[in-house]
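User: quick one, fold this
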Amino acid sequence: MIEIRSIKNETEFNDMLYQRWLVLRAPLGLPRGTEKDKYEDSAFHLVALWENQIVGSARLRCLSKELGSIAYVAILPEFQNQGIGTKLMQKLIVTSAEKNLKTLRVMARTNVVKFYNHLGFIAEGEPFNYLDTPHIFMYYKLQVDSQLVKDW
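Assistant:
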């Protein structure tokens, strides 16, 4: 059973950063420390736990009163394609609606565009390289739907 929830303490936060590094930066040959940025303290962090192990994570931060940014969506390879990423994203979408955000943005690696499309994100602009990996900005227009919030 997978549990989706926010970070509870500093140890869990550090475990999340390590999990994020394993998924997003280690495969690129990047050192520890590259999995975080200056916005960690002002962001909302979610984790997916299986038997008390962090197997997935994602982050939301407000860029303005209406625009939120989702970043560092990371699922351990052995747990991918099991709906964990979808559950993390659904929780972030609901949280964004509760914060009265109007639009969400994600800088997606181009190899996961279909995942974000499935959730309702639309690619805008041209692909670009970030960390020598092709990315594209994708946007999601939030619609407050009380039934949707209840379902998630």
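User: anything notable?
Assistant: Residues 146-152 have pLDDT under 50 and may be disordered.
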